[in-house]
């Protein structure tokens, strides 16, 4: 049996919906020696990660940790720990990831109430208000940055409506955290999850989460066990808390990477980081509009880190993306769901969000369009 050669993947310019490029400092951090998951030095690193995550989430929540799995596991952990069979959840849906939350709600045995908006548009708070008159949900769930459409969802009014109805407020910040303002405490978000591979700029594999005291009370008053042993936060929090009770072998190198990525975020400063993402998005927009592209989302609701553009007539979707990859080593994303074949999703996330990358992509697309 032959043995494959040494791993040597091509160097790509990652400008899709994730993962984003990792800063060299993060790659170096991943190459540092392993420690045991209960080594006192590693426990100190865990505490540093928790504190930096609180700063990035803008929260004082005690239970603020990275789940040892991707952002979708963060979504499942948040819903599965807060919902029991017979509960009711109101989920706002305007893209793929709202639909995914609906699927998980059903798997939890909870009743589902949907509030829908067209793909490319935000959820209207008045639709949420109307839906709440006919149900008593345990939680209201919404996506802050819908990766499938490029919509940035205003949250404060919907948070207020959820709490007036006696519900917890759950938010997906997988794409927004580290690239746009996320204010967990100020916006009274009770449960929030994210991913490391987008604006935080670390490799995929961890899902930062944070839970308010109200959410912890709901978890502690459950009448049934969480359906997933691995994602049961009543167990996981004992490992991350003062007790340090063994639950699973933490992904040591991924925690190193997250620690370094959070250091980079905080060294840059949150406001400066948000401004960088916004400026590069505007540079991209100006260049794409000169090439004849139109945006799917209205200006006031556009994500700066995930730009969804309508493919102009006469320009082929998959063949053009393949040429970008093969000729220029640039990856951009295809449309999902009902937008497949109609749009491109261009990411400007974390370390990938640079003026150089924008100009490189604009030049490459222009050359391809001119034959």
Q: How would you describe this structure to a colleague?
A:
With 371 residues, the chain is α/β, with parallel strands linked by helices. It folds into two domains: 13-18 and 270-369, Aspartate Aminotransferase, domain 1; 24-266, Aspartate Aminotransferase, domain 2. It is 40% helix and 15% strand. The protein is built from twelve helices and 15 strands. The protein has helices at 24-30, 40-57, 71-82, 96-107, 125-132, 156-164, 213-220, 233-240, 252-268, 270-290, 317-328, 355-369; strands at 13-14, 63-67, 88-93, 111-116, 139-143, 145-146, 151-152, 168-172, 191-193, 207-211, 294-295, 306-310, 330-331, 333-334, 343-347. A seven-stranded mixed β-sheet has the order 2-10-9-8-5-3-4, sandwiched between helices. A four-stranded antiparallel β-sheet has the order 11-12-15-14, covered by helices on one side. Strand 6 and strand 7 form a beta hairpin. Helix 2 (40-57) crosses helix 9 and helix 11 (317-328) packs across helix 12 (355-369). The N and C termini lie far apart (45 Å). The model has no long low-confidence stretch (mean pLDDT 97).
List keywords for this structure.
371 residues; alpha/beta; Aspartate Aminotransferase, domain 1; Aspartate Aminotransferase, domain 2; 2 domains; 7-stranded mixed β-sheet; 4-stranded antiparallel β-sheet; 12 helices; 15 strands
